[in-house]
Specification:
alpha/beta; 190 residues
């Protein structure tokens, strides 16, 4: 297996690093090698947060260059636009249609220009992660994106491995997150 390159992105407080670490644990439990690099310098102030995750039989480093990501998962439209240049030819971008306005900015169009741009990027799927998260709430939005990832062709970590990590993470309260996870996978399969 070659190395699969994934970027998970959003803004501070959305659980990007937690979701990426959960995915990395699922990959390791599946017998794969993983390297992860997280960037979250301004996370406490609602700034950009991202994790670059590389998964394969043997992975030497965590950096993903522009044009090298097989998949970009984003919980924010602005971050999806920012990371779009990292998508490899034939790669995919799955993003929430939600927008967290940058601090101090008012966006009068509700993100329409970002959605318009992303619709022009080949391989993009825009999900209503808030609706798909259901009763899991904002914590379930990550589960939606992780589920969506499992429905992308070539994604190396299978759904049961991620579901097990969700059960570990949430314990007895995992039900809503697991439902959100499954709805995310189904939304991409449609």
């Amino acid at each position: 297996m070659s190395v699969y390159n994934l970027v998970v992105t959003g803004v501070g407080g959305q659980g990007i690093i937690t979701a990426s670490a959960l995915l990395a644990r699922a990959a390791i439990a599946s017998g794969l090698d993983v390297r992860m690099y997280g960037s979250y310098g301004m996370a406490q102030r609602g700034g950009s947060v991202s994790a670059q995750v590389r998964i394969g039989d043997k992975v030497l480093n965590a950096r993903i260059e522009k044009g090298g990501a097989d998949l970009v998962l984003s919980l924010d439209l602005v971050e999806a636009v920012r990371w779009a240049p990292h998508i490899a030819r034939g790669g995919r971008l799955v993003t929430s249609g939600a927008l967290v306005p940058p601090t101090g900015k008012v966006l009068r169009d509700g993100g329409a220009k970002y959605i318009g741009f992303l619709k022009s990027v080949p391989g993009t799927t825009i999900l209503d992660s808030v609706k798909l998260a259901g009763e899991a709430g904002t914590r379930g939005e990550n589960a939606v994106l992780l589920g969506a990832a499992t429905a992308v062709e070539g994604f190396p970590v299978k759904a049961p491995a991620i579901e097990e990590r969700l059960k570990e993470e949430f314990g007895k309260a995992a039900g809503p997150a697991l439902s959100a996870f499954r709805r995310g996978a189904e939304a991409v399969r449609k």
